[in-house]
Amino acid sequence: MNGFRKKLLANLDKSKESDIRTQHGATKTDDEIEDILFQRYREELAGNARLKQVIERGKSSDTYRFIPQFHFELPKNSDGLAQKLREEARTLFLQKRSKELLDNNELKLLWSLLESHHSPPLMGEEQYINYENYCKVAGIAGEKFKRYLTASTFARLVVSSSYPGKISVMSLFNYAMRKVWLQQTRIGLSLYDYTGQGYLNESDLESYILELIPTFPQLEGLEKSFHSFYVCTTVRKFFFFLDPLRTGRIRIRDILTCTFLDDLLELRDEEIPKDAQEMNWFSAPSALSVYGHYLNLDKDHNGMLSKKELIGYGSGTLTPIFLDRVFAECLTYDGEMDYKTYLDFVLALENRSEPQSLHYLFRILDVEHKGYLTPFTLNYFFKGIQDEISAHRAEPVNFADVKDEIFDMVKPADPSRITLKDLIVSGHGETVVSILIEFHKFWAYENREVMVTDSTASNGEETHNL
């Protein structure tokens, strides 16, 4: 026993047998002292020594004795009752939050109160309201309206007001409507967040979009057989831009703060100009166009795209070297690309200036998986451009000149390598990527001065003719 006690003492830097005897008196037996040492040693191993000291110092307060639980694990799949209880509690919570929102009749009442309490004179046809009348409206409207008519709201709006000390009635009403819409949308999205963690995975968002389709007049003519492809096309844009690291989920907060929902919910309008529909990724013409191009590329009609088929994408001048890397890095099935992978490819090439697209393309360019591009890497891809130059019997271009031009544009922190951050910060990421992967883009960049001169001369002739 003496040997065990010595071992315990060796592991307790601050504990000595003499100290224990002084503290507890000389009446303690060796076994009792050994028990005390053992308890102290166990507490140190468990990391509770510090907590015990705090409790001893604050015995007069129960707050040190009882720490409330602040983390609750999600119910396991096997625990059906706990899952059902959690789901029911979440549904009741969302229903309660939904009842707190202003309905159409209450919004009309708010507009009526703001109009009747506006502060003259009129600024043109626009009505303004001062803080005194603003407070009167808040008092008359009732408790439910107070969260929309706070002092901080007035202060934020008055900063951008063109009339000192007053805010626009229309701006205030638009703010209230926008807040109601955001809260309604958040509640609607949260209904599909089955874990209640503030995230949606791909299947959750697909369910949300699928149930929205019947509410969009702009999608009434869409055949039901195409609905699954439309949902896939829509969801891929959300995940491509809001989940660039491919975690498989996106935050509801990110969905609300991006502009994609505005574009999607624009489809509720009865009439949208043709050019606006073409610019909106979520419109029926746009979705049909993207899927139509996919079908046109699929020459063997097997529902997948091979490397040979994908080379016809766009202007048809993407280099074989770049396409080899695409199929090496992206998800494929027996060497062929499915529609989801194709959508990521399209979104990356159509939005090359965006950080998410540069992240996608940089991963393909980073042949050595080092996290940066070297002159060797640039030369590896530029060989594909040089092959196209030879095929078109154009004047050869020296790689050293192109390399120097790229490094001059990017101005990387390390002059011997280019990182993704360097590309994004430089503002020339789109240009650098384009001249390495697509002959058509390289040729346009190489002859940009000639094209500008021709364009200027052409404009001069037109002016002269007029």
UniProtKB/TrEMBL annotation:
Location of this chain's protein in the cell: Cytoplasm; Nucleus
Annotated source species: Culex quinquefasciatus
Gene Ontology CC terms: centrosome; cytoplasm; nucleus; spindle
PANTHER family in UniProt: SERINE/THREONINE-PROTEIN PHOSPHATASE 2A REGULATORY SUBUNIT B'' SUBUNIT GAMMA (PTHR12085), SERINE_THREONINE-PROTEIN PHOSPHATASE 2A REGULATORY SUBUNIT B'' SUBUNIT GAMMA (PTHR12085:SF3)
GO biological process, one term: microtubule cytoskeleton organization
Entry GO MF terms: metal ion binding
CDD domains to which the protein is assigned, alphabetical: PPP2R3C (cd21505)
Name of this protein: Serine/threonine-protein phosphatase 2A regulatory subunit B'' subunit gamma
Keywords, alphabetical: Calcium, Cytoplasm, Metal-binding, Nucleus, Repeat
Sequence ranges assigned to domain PP2A regulatory subunit B'' EF-hand in this UniProt record: 194-270
Family annotation (Gene3D superfamilies): 1.10.238.220, EF-hand
Keyword Acetylation part of the UniProt annotation: no
PROSITE patterns: EF_HAND_1 (PS00018)
Record lineage: Eukaryota, Metazoa, Ecdysozoa, Arthropoda, Hexapoda
